[in-house]
Amino acid sequence: MWSIEGTALELTHNYGTEDPSFKGYHVGNQGNDGFGHVAFNTDDVYAACEKMETMGVTFQKKPNEGRMKGLAFAHDPDGYWVEIVKRSETGKIQNYFNFSQTMLRIKDPKKSIPFYEAMGMKVVRQKNYGDFSNYFLSSNCEGIDVEEILSDAEAKARIGQMFGPVLELTHNHGTEHDDAFHHYNGNEEERQGFGHIGFLVDDVYVACDNIRTMGYGFKKEPDGGSMKGLAFAYDPDGYLVEIIKRHGIEFGDLKVDKK
């Protein structure tokens, strides 16, 4: 798994939570929650949603509802929102669904965009909707000319045919000017649900040395705790970003300074 070119969706089960007495996790999209949703692309949103509905899936928004027709937001078994998005070209991807995005809200794109660009991502689409803007970033840009000037429709079509997912960063305008404003990152007491995103790197220690210069700090340094060789950095909004060694973690390894 640690060498795949694609992206994994990590689901963490804390034993005992399946008990009916467990009140559930905080799924986001309330107050200042930062995590929004994950998304899957498919050839036919309407057919996919009909199929899901027969399986007992409920919806926050069906594809024929609201002013944005043709996309939907389903609830997963824990209540997390799952956006269902139409591919820009049908018949090119064999999978019925493909994992296509994770959405996080950000306070200041002038801080967040450079942070994720430093993590090797590139902006493949951005759009200003008046009171908020969306930025879509991708790690796997092979075959994509990110410098090419495209219309928004062309940029939207480009990411709509990608198999690998994008990171969608949503900025509600004005939050960057409010010193007191912050997003909840999904790990606070009584608001736990979303955990983190992660990046694979060749050398965790070198990567963390570079991340450290950005000044946002770490929840866990590579040699912190009992699990050596992986780290959890903070992004500008305080989201946890796991830094993992590509091809697998060598548990118990210690960094030895050369003398």
From TrEMBL:
<dbReference type="GO" id="GO:0004462">
    <property type="term" value="F:lactoylglutathione lyase activity"/>
</dbReference>
<comment type="similarity">
    <text>Belongs to the glyoxalase I family.</text>
</comment>
<dbReference type="GO" id="GO:0046872">
    <property type="term" value="F:metal ion binding"/>
</dbReference>
<dbReference type="InterPro" id="IPR037523">
    <property type="entry name" value="VOC_core"/>
</dbReference>
<dbReference type="InterPro" id="IPR029068">
    <property type="entry name" value="Glyas_Bleomycin-R_OHBP_Dase"/>
</dbReference>
<dbReference type="Pfam" id="PF00903">
    <property type="entry name" value="Glyoxalase"/>
</dbReference>
<comment type="pathway">
    <text>Secondary metabolite metabolism; methylglyoxal degradation; (R)-lactate from methylglyoxal: step 1/2.</text>
</comment>
<feature type="domain" description="VOC">
    <location>
        <begin position="1"/>
        <end position="87"/>
    </location>
</feature>
<feature type="binding site">
    <location>
        <position position="168"/>
    </location>
    <ligand>
        <name>Zn(2+)</name>
    </ligand>
</feature>
<keyword id="KW-0862">Zinc</keyword>
<dbReference type="InterPro" id="IPR004360">
    <property type="entry name" value="Glyas_Fos-R_dOase_dom"/>
</dbReference>
<feature type="active site" description="Proton donor/acceptor">
    <location>
        <position position="242"/>
    </location>
</feature>
<dbReference type="InterPro" id="IPR018146">
    <property type="entry name" value="Glyoxalase_1_CS"/>
</dbReference>
<comment type="function">
    <text>Catalyzes the conversion of hemimercaptal, formed from methylglyoxal and glutathione, to S-lactoylglutathione.</text>
</comment>
<feature type="binding site">
    <location>
        <position position="242"/>
    </location>
    <ligand>
        <name>Zn(2+)</name>
    </ligand>
</feature>
<keyword id="KW-0456">Lyase</keyword>
<protein>
    <recommendedName>
        <fullName>Lactoylglutathione lyase</fullName>
        <ecNumber>4.4.1.5</ecNumber>
    </recommendedName>
</protein>
<feature type="binding site">
    <location>
        <position position="196"/>
    </location>
    <ligand>
        <name>Zn(2+)</name>
    </ligand>
</feature>
<keyword id="KW-0479">Metal-binding</keyword>
<feature type="binding site">
    <location>
        <position position="101"/>
    </location>
    <ligand>
        <name>Zn(2+)</name>
    </ligand>
</feature>
<feature type="domain" description="VOC">
    <location>
        <begin position="98"/>
        <end position="246"/>
    </location>
</feature>
<dbReference type="InterPro" id="IPR004361">
    <property type="entry name" value="Glyoxalase_1"/>
</dbReference>
